[in-house]
Design goal:
Rossmann fold; 12 helices; binds S-adenosylmethionine
């Protein structure tokens, strides 16, 4: 009991420290940017006292939820303390070195500054861009090597806590397959990126077969390094497009997808949802996580508005307004539920 209380205080203290570091980094870097590379159409975001208060409350609720789920046993407590500090330490200077390039692209409204070596025919058009002004888009080892920390800073150190919100609905959904051996259950994480979600999933599902799929070779290589020391069966990594998954119909028991939908045009979002439905077997569970949306998080509208103005996120505005619940039902899922946690909304649904 005492040990738990101390662990909880330690967890919250580390999380608060990360939040302060994230906020401080953003404040300092945006001041420097306004000085060096002012842009009168941008940089007007004002984090007023009320908004800061709402952010604190919401982050605290997220931490409570995260702690509670670990206490219930959805994942081990040690996952809450699993911070790659050494990795952050090596990534942080790179982030500062990269910033002037990002500011330049942003000022020039240059969203197509991609490595010359890539074969553009291998990727859909919507993908061939510098999302969030990211150097090389998703298409270089360099981009993959700093992505994690960039996301961590963007979310004030809460990214993994938010990713972990997929575990509870996933467990509830997979209850339907309780009579099967756990290693016969297949969980596919689509748009897996550099492996952070896979690590959280392995924490919650130690025996199930986990597969990560992404379009970027570089991000998959980074994921492979990041998850290489995990216990449990080797996680399989596959290069592929969410629009045409390399799986037979009705073959998977679970599909997860974290932070992809806001980077897809509406028609592709719908196509990808159909694909999730196709590969899941009846009773299979879909758990999606992405940005909060306007309707359920009105207190954060200014943040959402700023996000799509400040970062290059051409499909975000449409995403935050789309009724995804209805779309999920339209492609054939039932039991559609959704819940928001700080900056992330999580949907779960069952295939009939
Ligand atoms: C914002 S990142 C999210 C990564 C990861 N899920 C996470 O939690 O950090 C979006 C990822 O989606 C991948 N992606 C984008 N479009 C895709 C598509 N059509 N098929 C597969 N992956 C895609 C990108 O390569 C990138 O790794």
């Amino acid at each position: 009991m005492v040990k738990d209380s101390i662990s909880k205080i330690a967890f919250k203290t580390i999380q608060q420290g990360k939040s302060i570091a994230g906020l401080a980094h953003k404040e300092i870097s945006s001041r420097i940017m306004n000085f060096i590379s002012p842009d009168k159409d941008l940089n007007k975001f004002n984090l007023d006292k009320n908004l800061l208060y709402d952010i604190q409350i919401s982050m605290n609720e997220l931490r409570e939820e995260d702690w509670k789920d670990s206490q219930i046993g959805h994942y081990p407590q040690k996952l809450l303390f699993d911070e790659p500090w050494l990795r952050y330490l090596t990534q942080y200077p790179k982030i500062w070195l990269d910033m002037p390039l990002t500011w330049q692209r942003r000022k020039k409204r240059d969203f197509n500054d991609l490595p010359k070596s890539i074969d553009k025919d291998n990727y859909p058009n919507y993908y061939l861009r510098n999302f969030h002004h990211q150097t090389d888009g998703y298409l270089s080892d360099y981009s993959a090597s700093i992505y994690d920390l960039q996301v961590e800073i963007l979310f004030n150190g809460t990214a993994d806590s938010m990713r972990r919100r997929i575990i509870k609905p996933l467990k509830a959904g997979l209850d339907k397959f309780n009579e099967r051996k756990r290693n016969a259950i297949k969980i596919l994480d689509v748009a897996t990126g550099s492996g952070r979600t896979l690590k959280q999933l392995r924490g919650g599902f130690s025996e199930e077969k986990i597969i990560g799929l992404d379009l970027s070779d570089s991000y998959l290589k980074e994921a492979s390094r990041y998850i290489s020391d995990l216990n449990g069966d080797l996680i399989e990594l596959i290069k592929g497009n969410a629009e045409s998954l390399p799986f037979e119909d009705n073959t998977l028991q679970a599909v997860t997808c974290v932070y992809l939908f806001h980077e897809l045009p509406r028609t592709i979002r719908e196509k990808v949802l159909k694909e999730f439905h196709r590969v899941l077997e009846p009773n299979g569970v879909l758990v999606l996580a992405d940005s909060i949306q306007i309707n359920d998080s009105p207190e954060f509208i200014s943040i959402m508005d700023n996000f799509h103005k400040t970062f290059h996120e051409p499909f975000y505005r449409d995403y935050i307004q789309q009724d995804i619940d209805t779309k999920i039902k339209e492609v054939g899922f039932i039991n559609v539920q959704s819940n928001s946690f700080f900056m992330t909304k999580v949907w779960s649904a069952t295939k009939i």
